Amino acid sequence: MLRMLPFLLLTSTLAAQLPPDVAMERSGFVAWLKKAPNSPLAAVARRMVDDGVRLGPEDADIPLPGTDEYRLYPATGGYVLEGPGGKHPIGRGRPYKIGRYALYLSGPEPATVLTVFAGAPEKEPPGYYDYDPAMVFTGPLTRADAPRKSRVLTAEGFEVEASEIGTFLVPLGGRTPLRVLRIPVPGSDESDLEIFFQDKTNDHGSYPAGRFVSLVPARDGSFRLDFNRSRNPFCAYSSAYPCPLPWRGNQIADSVRAGERYTGGGLESIPAAEDGK
Amino acid sequence: MIAELAMQAALALIAASSPAGHWKAVLELAGGQLPFVVVVEPAGRGWKGQLCNGTKCEPFSAVRMRGDSLVLEIADYDATLTGLLRADSLTGYYRNVGSRGPRTIPFRAERGRVPTPLGGRRLLGRWDATYFQDLGTSPRVLEFRNEPDGFQGRMITSTSDYGPFTGSVVGDSFAIGLFDGSFVYLLTGKLQGDTLRGIFHAGLRTQTPWIAVRSTGAPHLESPSEISRADTTEPLRFAFPDLNGQLFRSDDARLRGKVVLVDIFGSWCPTCHDATPELLRLYRKYRGRGLEIVGLAFESTGDTAVDARQVRRYRDKFKIPFPLLLAGVNDNQSVAAALPQLSDVTAFPTAVFLGRDGRVRRIHAGFHGLAAGPQHARMVRDFETEIERLLEEKRER
User: Fold this and answer.
1) Separation between Cα atoms, residue B85 and residue A108, nearest integer Å
2) Would you say residue A27 has pLDDT above 50?
3) B247 chain-A contacts, CB cut-off 8 A
4) DSSP SS3 for B115
5) Rounded alpha-carbon distances, angstroms, from residue B59 to B22, B47, B56, B164, B323
6) B272 in helix, strand or coil?
7) Contacts of A29 in chain B (CB under 8 A)
8) Chain B within 8 Å of A204 (Cβ-Cβ)?
9) How does pLDDT run across A55-72, given as a tens digit for each residue?
10) Nearest residue of chain A to residue B348 (CA atoms)
11) Pairing of β B46-53 and β B342-343
């Protein structure tokens, strides 16, 4: 038995090693979170533009310490930012700098959203649980008889029209069928099969509102769900983002100690599970 | 003798660790392998290389060794292929960055030249395909030919054509791919009776089943001019920064009284790269008679510095003399918000033809490249006819 111990230790160590593709995915994402000027870690405010948004003073819709007063409002052909320097048209997806802040317009029309980023991110990315190969599941996708449209918030906090395509069964918390939605990737032929789930680690190491994980089709017709690739919604990086409502039925009565962690606060803003869907 | 053997072994080792040569490469998608070719050769004290789909090759913007890894940069799409170099293999990742963060797809390659298989007669020709999506179907035309470098496919939608797809064909089955640094597409299919059945793989993990039957010649796709619509009662209005950060408006003196072709494009969009030489030809041919072109770029990252860099690279690559403006990010909602007088703009590129009064006269969604043959020729004729007609209109503004 003692002669087998090194072998057992070795296999145990190997099993917990981070696969190179997961390592690459994580390092690339962490680098983006740390450095990108539109990293969600640097977001300080987000608001629907509607008829207009006042920025700057303490009593403004979006107070921006150290800046003059500005007003952003819709105008023919786009949006205008009016401030001490006059009026400036602002295009969507293009940052407009006010001092240390960058303003971005985005989101599906007419629900145009203003997001304000404050320079380089100061917060650190939240990090990951150790890789756990036991948190990888392969199985069939049980297709819905008639897929239907469903409006949901994406991980990035945008409302999109997704299609409910079925459920995927995981042997956690007994047997939990998780609802799967196909979420389109804007501007491409691609889409993701997404699961937004909650589990017992929420608020005890992982983000309280739940996490997203993708269901990946395999070559033999089955599907692979790797909870080690679970990722936070953007509201975990900054309270500027709205949190998606947890998807009814996707509550796992077990701990998923895999994927992205969370160590911040924000519990007061977590909504209850959605009803009626 | 021993010294000679040692020298030979050392030389063999040096040759084996050189990245130079032909590489049979694949991207490992969830549903299959997307084949393409990488060619690397010495250039001065460094390296240069090409990314090839069949005989269609594009140079890498940079090729370098970083430690034990070969790094191949595709600057047009802000993308990189990185592979750990062993004697006869490369193992690594394709990576690019969008507004949602980076995406990575496993990549590997082995030394050697790809075979050039020919497809059987039963596969060749034009097929009317139906793609099955969750909430409905959409039409495509698939076209298969045997070219000097083997079996090739094209996929034609109502708005554009994708190709060439190249790869393997065995009997009545095929797996052909298109990877140019931005598009990541794999088309697999098998002939069963008179029907082709297969899967279209987009990106790492999107799979769309399809079936196809031989084209009868009847129209199968929607006309590109029926896809997007516009408010034609008022001049088209827009105002976006140019590449120097200066605001450029639709009522700029440069456009006033001219027939204007507004090119909605993105530097990330390979079909836009195919379309630009044709726009430049039209510009040279008709500018003297009153045609002006302005490009509205909808880019990937939403990071102005990165997006402006990509569009400048695009401008310099094609030596574009007309204005290119940074209009937004590349999603339909962004286009809708930036150009609220247009609706249902879903294709990149989209050409919007304005009369001399600035009002929209015609919208053409997508672009059929040279390889689309008759469709390309017909589209070019249509463009020229439209421009000639608009140039003849009275000056009204």
Assistant:
1) 44
2) yes
3) 88-89
4) coil
5) 14, 11, 10, 17, 26
6) helix
7) 101-102
8) no
9) 999 888 898 888 999 999
10) A187
11) unpaired
Distance between CA atoms of residues B221 and B129, nearest Å: 10
Interface test with B, best of A18, A92, A180, A212 (most B CBs within 10 A): A92
Q: What is the DSSP string of B197-265?
A: EEEEEETTTEEEEEEEEE--SS--S--GGGT-EE--SSB---EEEBTTS-EEETT-TTTTTSEEEEEEE
Q: What is the DSSP string of B130-149?
A: EEEETTEEEEEEEEEEEETT
- Eight-class DSSP state of B358: S
Instruction: Sort B154 into a burial class: Cβ within 10 Å, 0-12 / 13-18 / 19+.
Output: buried
B327-377 residue pLDDT tens: 987 766 677 778 888 877 767 888 999 999 898 888 887 787 776 666 778
Q: Report which of B200, B220, B219 is spatially closest to residue B209, judged by C-alpha positions.
A: B200
Tokens 């001399």 locate to: B356
The strand order across the sheet containing A141-153 reads A136-139, A223-226, A211-217, A191-197, A176-184, A159-170, A141-153
Residue B9 structure tokens: 């072994």
What are B242's two structure tokens? 């140019």
Helix or strand run (H / E) with residue B93: strand B89-98
* Encoded tokens for A76: 């023919």
Estimate to the nearest angstrom the gap between the alpha carbon of A144 and the chain centroid: 25
Mean of per-residue pLDDT scores for chain A: 83
Kindly provide the b/e burial profile for residues B123-151, where b requires at least 16 CB atoms within 10 angstroms of the residue's own CB. beebbbbebeebeeeebbbbbbbbeebbb
Angle at A43 between CA A40 and CA A44, to 5 degrees: 155
Q: How many whole angstroms separate alpha carbon B222 and alpha carbon B381?
A: 19
Nearest to A93 among B134, B329, B339 (CB): B329
Both tokens of residue B102? 């980076």
Assembly ipTM: 0.70
Distance CA B183, CA B77 (A): 10
> Mind giving me the DSSP string for chain A?
-GGGHHHHHHHHHHHTSPPHHHHHHHHHHHHHHHH-TT-GGGEEEEEE-TT-EEEESTTSSEE-TT---EEEEEETTEEEEEETTEEEEE-TT--EEETTEEEEEESSTTS-EEEEEESS--SPP--BPPP-GGGEEEE-EEEEEEEEEEEEE-TTS-EEEEEEEEEEEESSSSSEEEEEEEEEPTTSS-EEEEEEEB-TTBTTTB-TT-EEEEEEE-TTS-EEEEGGG-B--GGGT-TTSPPPPPPTT-B-SS----SB------GGGPPPPP---
Partners of residue A151 on adjacent β-strands: A161
Size of interface A-B (CB pairs under 8 A): 137
Dig out the tokens for A110 from the structure: 């007419």
Bridge partner residues of B40 (DSSP) = B21, B49
Q: Please tell me which residue, B120 or A13, carries the higher pLDDT value.
A: B120
Number of Cα atoms under 13 Å in the Cβ half of residue B317: 20
Q: Among candidates B378, B350, B380, B344, which has minimal Cα distance to B363?
A: B350
* Beta carbons of B24 and B39 less than 8 angstroms apart: no
Using CA atoms of A13, A19, A22, A24 in order, give the dihedral in degrees to the nearest 10.
110
